[in-house]
Design goal:
single chain, about 300 residues, mainly alpha, about 5% strand, globular
Length: about 300
């Protein structure tokens, strides 16, 4: 019964987000909530803050879940999505107010603390070794994991549909791994609202993007990935499938340590290929060694994350 009902929840999220995103594209354009697409020759103005569409579509699906799945541990489901939504709202504040670096480093940890309310497994399993961590896991490791994952997703972005596509791939693999590990667990079905919303949104966010995620979107989907990993007790699996994101972060750390000049965007050459300012993000590393444009870079980066998902 769960699979059938969850399919309805997925469809509600997908259809709602599809309709809402189309509406937001129109309204955001009219109101001037746009940014320039720096990797297109004409640099068109593209609506941003698309995370609000994902949040809205997911919320509609959660309302539907109260009717279709009254027996489905809705208290845990709503706490799970509370963490995701609060990260989306925090990202929206950053979009609007450009919050300080200190606030971005400190507040996300506390925003993730409600994850401790869930009845999560406080053991850390590493192959044959199992370590019971108790409150340390609940109140320190779990929220820290969500915070770090959200920031990894937020940082591995910059091209049309890059962060959204990568997060969708990660959520799909988390769902598959959760189901394979325990087909009877309800946690697999927790992902259906956000997956339905993400897949609908990606229709508009894929290259060439008609709307961007903004920080409201990247932090929201990043929190979804991190929370799903914690909820399903897949911490080691999560680290493995996030290796491309971790490499991207380490390259950025090296950039900061060496105090190289801050360059937000690469240059686009006449033939459409990317000329990066350095090799110190994964997308720039790719463009440095290979003659690639934006679309080809995006597809290669999708492929890399897919490979790590399959290996995981």
């Amino acid at each position: 019964m769960y699979p059938l009902k969850s399919t309805f929840i997925f469809l509600i999220a997908f259809i709602s987000t599809f309709i809402i995103t189309k509406y937001f594209i129109k309204k955001f354009s009219e109101k001037g909530f746009t940014v320039k697409d720096m990797y297109k020759p004409e640099k068109p103005n593209i609506p941003t803050m698309g995370g609000l569409a994902i949040l809205s579509g997911t919320l509609v699906a959660l309302i539907g879940s109260q009717i279709l799945l009254p027996e489905f541990q809705l208290d845990k489901l709503l706490v799970f999505y509370f963490v995701i939504f609060i990260y989306g709202i925090f990202g929206l504040l950053d979009d609007l107010l450009n919050l300080s670096r200190t606030m971005k480093l400190i507040l996300p940890f506390f925003l993730a603390l409600p994850i401790a309310i869930l009845n999560i497994d406080t053991r850390l399993d590493f192959f044959a070794i199992s370590i019971e961590l108790g409150w340390i896991y609940k109140y320190i490791i779990a929220p820290m994991y969500v915070m770090v994952t959200a920031n990894l997703i937020n940082m591995h972005s910059g091209y049309n549909g890059l962060s959204g596509g990568l997060a969708t791939i990660l959520l799909i693999f988390i769902g598959i791994e959760s189901y394979l590990a325990n087909p009877n667990t309800p946690f697999f079905f927790y992902l259906t609202p956000i997956l339905g919303a993400m897949l609908a949104f990606m229709w508009f966010n894929k290259y060439p993007s008609k709307i961007f995620l903004g920080n409201s979107g990247t932090l929201l989907i990043g929190a979804a990935v991190g929370s799903a990993i914690i909820l399903n007790n897949l911490e080691i699996f999560g680290v493995f499938i996030l290796i491309p994101h971790i490499i991207n972060f380490l390259l950025w750390i090296y950039w900061i340590i060496k105090k190289y000049p801050h360059v937000k965007f690469a240059k686009v050459q006449l033939d459409g290929t990317i000329k990066p300012p350095n090799r110190l993000t994964l997308k720039y590393l790719l463009a440095h060694y290979f003659k690639v444009g934006e679309l080809r870079s995006i597809l290669i980066l999708y492929g890399i994350t897919t490979i790590f998902g399959l290996l995981g």
